[in-house]
Amino acid sequence: MDPSQWIDVTVDKNHYSLDHFVIPNHYEQDVSSILIPHGVIMDRVQKLARLIVDQNDGPLVVCCILKGGHQYFADLVNCIKKLTTAHGQSVPLSLEFIRVKSYQNDQSVGVNISLTENELKDFEGKNILIVEDIIDTGKTMVALLERLQTYKPKTVKVTSLLIKKTERSNGYIPHYVGFAIPDAFVVGYALDYNEHFRDLDHICVISEHGKKAYAV
Ligand code: HPA
Ligand code: MG
User: Fold this and answer.
1) Which of 52, 47, 50 is nearest to 63 (CA)?
2) Which of 31, 105, 171, 216 is most buried, judging by how many CB atoms fall within 10 Å of its CB?
């Protein structure tokens, strides 16, 4: 996707104050600002679904990258199900799940992909759409794509709700991106910090208090 097509929330420093929206009170000390309110996420997911359906041809294997991708995956699949192409065709979907783990505290600790050979064999000859929560360094996605290619899918496209603008990026850009975000650690909408904050609806910047409270 061309960067002109995604929403850049790094441009103006207009993060929302915690007072402007409802935050579960168990997280009040642990986030410093709201970067993307839940309603804006939902509206953007609708548009991404529209773009994906408009550019799709035939059945699609939608592949969720667990755990962080699950909320975006669920909302995106819901939107895609309700849409049809310009020719009135709905998109036949099948759903797959891949577990990837690469972060401890706010540091990348190398990529660990759990996939059974049986799951991978199902990809042969299929159009795959990978659904990820965030592209940070890009290392996880490049490693995953390499691994998938050995199973000969027909096409592989990637959508990530977020892409982080960071000097540590390897330059990887997905086909469909929701928002570009600043180089800060974000949580909420299923993005976690050591498994916490997945139960927060908005995408927020974690506070120093939050990093300490949930460090391992
Ligand atoms: N938040 C949550 N998970 C992540 C992030 C982030 O900022 N970057 C990579 N994985
Ligand atoms: Mg994660």
Assistant:
1) 52
2) 31
Report pLDDT for 22: 95
Q: Enumerate the β-bridge partners of residue 132.
A: 160
- Counting from 1 in the atom list of ligand 1, the atom nearest the Cα of 68 is 3
Topology of domain 3-213 in CATH is Rossmann fold (3.40.50)
Tokens of 130: 């990978």
CB 76 within 8 A of CB 132: no
The answer to whether the beta carbons of residues 63 and 101 sit under 8 Å apart is: no
Q: Enter the pTM of the model.
A: 0.92
> For ligand 2, a single-atom ion, which residues have Cβ within 5 Å?
68
- Check residue 119 and give its pLDDT: 67
Distance 79 CA to ligand 1 centre (A): 24
- Which residues fall within 8 angstroms of residue 155, CB to CB, at 6 or more apart? 127, 128
Look at residue 210 and give its three-state secondary structure.
Answer: helix
Distances 208 to 114, 132, 186, 213, 215 between C-alpha atoms, Å: 31, 26, 12, 9, 10
User: What distances in angstroms separate CA 17 from CA 34, 204, 209, one per listed residue?
Assistant: 6, 10, 17
Residues of the chain with pLDDT under 50: none
Whether 54 is catalytic is no
Ligand 1 centroid to Cα of residue 87, in Å, is: 38
In this prediction, residue 74 carries a pLDDT of: 97
